[in-house]
């Protein structure tokens, strides 16, 4: 049976439609069932080779992709920039072509430059998955975020573009430099959610309204109605100047503190893509509290990345997961 997935690569959420996101979610749901078994492995990618090429540091994403590929029985090689020929001046193109010449099937790339995965995908026959490129996109993070929200609050049986209809989501923090925010915006709105971005004016220009979201510069105005609060850390490594006076002022104006949490819905979901700066964007106890689904995001990331690898190598959706 031919796969309903039509893309060689997974570079961004923006070009996907709601039905394609739903297909990946449905496939991830089937893989999550596999991961609940005593033997958490299927032969779907046996004989395939997956390369983790991380030119930027990562813990969760790199480990998640590596485990996902191994759970699918693929051969996996992980390469960090410190141990690669980038140190000797080799270009990204030449690195990619050399890895492809070793019969690699999928290359998973994290890179500090926006557009690097697209650049590589256009030059390789192998599939390319974007594991985060600069301040552009991080598609699998958005897929696992929406998968987690759908599990808790959404309507799985609704049409793809209505699965998160009626769900109000606040994304709070450094929007300007966040690739997660951009991918989340596309994924959440395509599934019907109402998204409000919250942050200081220096990190949240009004141009984001053009993406079909609301913009607020006061976190206290959105807490009472939000079904989901997604906290983002300050992306210091991408900022060339200090864009707010101090961390203390940021916490007082935008941090999810205990006092602010009292204004939230009692069943609000608290999310964070990690790494968490405890005591900055979120109080430590709230990150570990009963409303937090942060660790569920991590767990769901494994199933979502298994689904992405499976579909990009010709898998035919959830009905073929056990074959």
Q: The CATH topology of the largest domain, please?
A: Rossmann fold
Indicate the percent of residues in helices.
Answer: 25-40%
CATH class of the largest domain: Alpha Beta
Work out the strand percent. Answer: 5-15%
Question: What is the average of the pLDDT values?
Answer: 93
CATH architectural name of the largest domain: 3-Layer(aba) Sandwich
Strand order of the largest sheet: 7-6-5-8-9
State the total count of DSSP E strands.
9
CATH-assigned homologous superfamily of the largest domain: Aspartate/ornithine carbamoyltransferase
The outline comes out as: globular
Largest sheet: 5 strands, parallel
Question: Structurally, how many domains make up the residues?
Answer: 2
Computed structural class:
alpha/beta
